[in-house]
Design a protein that fits this description.
Radius of gyration: 24 Å
Largest sheet: 2 strands, antiparallel
Strand content: under 5%
Amino acid sequence: MQFLEKFSASFWSPDVWLPPNTTWDDIVPTAENRFADYRDLAYPIPMAFVLLALRYALERYCFAPFGLSLGIKNTRPKKALPNPILEKAYAAKKFKHKQVLALTKQLDWTERQVERWFRLRKSQDKPSTLTKFCENNWRCVYYTYSFFYGLIVLWDKPWLWDIKECFYNYPYHPVTNGVWWYYMISMAFYWSLSFSQFFDVRRKDFWQMFIHHIATIALMCFSWVGNLTKIGSLVLLIHDCADIFLEAAKMAKYANYQKLCDFIFVIFTILWIVTRMGIYPFWIIYSTTIEAPKIVSMFPAYYIFNSLLVLLLVLHAAWTWLILKIAYNAFYAGQMEGDIRSNSSEDVSDASVDWTSNRNSVNNVSKLSHQQEQEFQ
């Protein structure tokens, strides 16, 4: 117990988390000033279950009927016959030729029969087009809400128009009700994604996406505890914008509106480059690395937070290269046909898109990770 107390005291030392000559007592929430309170971080967890209930209700009563009205079928692939031996091999992901030959002898099957069983079993794990459409619809609705709600909340805030306001008089920055809800609902959304992964169709990138969601939550918690909510709210706003069009492009693809899909993808690519490779580095990162040290005395936690923001920029650069590569190949092919998937068993995350054309087949794997996607995305 004594060791834990010492560790806690060292971890929560104001010398680590706050500027020099500042203590936790200086930013204790009061009736006059509602500073960020670490105890509020418990609220997003029950709120996540509310979002899950809302999601499944919308998918069942709104998104699914809407998808069916667009002609999207809820067909499921033919199921493979139950076979404990092959099921065990499938779970172990043993698909090499030697393993297949061993299974043919063990089951007295032909090589073609074993391979066909594996193909059926693999397709059985894939969600239907309607299921993926509903999932993208939910994400599109959420990102649309989040972006416009954030814009409304921050519209009259001075730091939206002058980013230096994020650092003046730091850390004495009261949290308004609008910013409080903006943060709490954003964290609840990523908690809900973490929970729903265990109930949704299991994807190939299950653990990568799970780690991504937890990392996103950790980064937001970090900024909340350090009372860096002003700069954090700007990062949230920037990252939600392009994701709206990414999810919309996927929806258009599943509904077989190819031209609309192509048009939305162009908008997404432009917005992604403008926000992730333009505004984010030359407005956010520039301010946190160049302008902030001139206004605020630096402290260890700030360096960690800023390093995470720079790391996010590196990820943006990698995802931008993938997006441009996909767009180039699709344009060169003359026609973009195929699937845009997010977190599917075959490819991608929020920052990657898979286009398969008559002349080219491009399959890129990345991630974010979102959300887009994007530790604040």
